[in-house]
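Hi D.,

Good news: the full-assembly prediction came through. Inputs first.
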Amino acid sequence: MAEECRTTPLTAWHQARGAKMAPFAGWLMPIQYEGILVEHEHTRHHAGLFDICHMGEFLIEGEGADAALSRAVSHNLATLKEGKCRYGFILNERGGVMDDCIVYRFGADSFMIVVNAACIATDFAALRGRLPQSVSLKDVSDETGKIDLQGPESLVVLESVLGEDLHDLGYFGFVRTQWQGAPLLVSRTGYTGELGFELYLPADKVVAFWEALLADARVKPAGLGARDTLRLESGLPLYGHELDEDHNPAEAGMGRMLTSEADYVGKAGAQTIREKLLALVIDGRRAARGGDVLALPDGTPVGRVTSGSFAPSLGCVIAFAWADAAHADADAYVVKAARAELPARVTELPFYKDGTARMKLK
Amino acid sequence: MSNPADLLYSASHEWVKIQGEEAVVGITHFAQESLGDITYVDLPAVGDSVSADSDFGSVESVKAASDLISPVNGEVIAVNEALADAPEKINADAFGDGWLIKVKLSGKPEGLMDAAAYEEHCKNEQH
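Then the structure:
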């Protein structure tokens, strides 16, 4: 099992520190070092460092790349300026989500797109099929390392390690700089709801950069366990749970994001609502889990939970669930968990509202 | 952490401390470590009866949930109420503050391991 998994430049580092390792999307990844709750809290209040080298990066360039990419992904590239990146989707012909991804604009016809690890091969094949041969598509996932520094203290730490002022970087802005002579892309984005950065650099520099960031006492390594509780509290979807090929972005509550005027693949079906993703709060500590049945208070099943967990920063249980559109407007539901029926009420996202991700730096 | 020599152990990672006619039951350090941060414990009420090899509650961590299997027969005479709001006590002190229930025994516990046999059992489970 584990031995068939791919490893990142940091796998040996994690193992040497006694991290609990587990397969994720075909990669052997750290789930926790000290413990999920400690790492979660540390990221909310200080800074957590995450190995995200498993994710994929593609470079797209050549004359006509802007227009061609606009037809391949849902992102509105017409309003995406150089130095900014944007969240969006690669859709199938029906409007279902093949992947969620971030597009970075490097120039008029030059982009980077960052995709989920489990989707690298299918995304690449889909994009290659959608882009003309005159536009180059290069998978640089293997040679590109990605580590995320997240938390309210991430800015001061990163500024001190780089010796640079990063206060000009707005949310979803990025800058290409250097660290010890190696190219480094600093993106003010993340998956925790906190002020933070996704950092891209050559894979062979990852360990040294990781250790340089960790040398600051405000930073602790954090595993995929904390990443999951942090993203869930922040109301961020996880591909394969809240997003999949059978649901479109509008069903997942992200229809308003679809502002692109380009005729992109899947556009016609992207707004048809058959099921709706609900955000649920459950009192107490007993968790709803992905796969649990969602029912009306009278017991009629109307959907299923996609993710659920005790929320460390909230002290209650939170969950996402699909409900069929005809029954998606109730205020209260019941989750049929493995050992109990849990009363759930619908809430607004994000679950955790004190995140620092969008804070003004100036 | 070593398993205290004065306890008995079950294959499903509960421990038992026999005190005359009574027994205190908890889960082992090995169990809490495999579960990770514990966020919820479901325990029986005082007066409920428990039977050996049957579940008497459940424990949940951020990532997993598992049944608690009683190592003894008897009647529940106390439950660790502090765990309702602070289940992390099990992680912090599985053999002490993190105890689960106290049982008035009906019959002598059977089929349990001593600390040395339990350590061997854990070693085999890790592989």
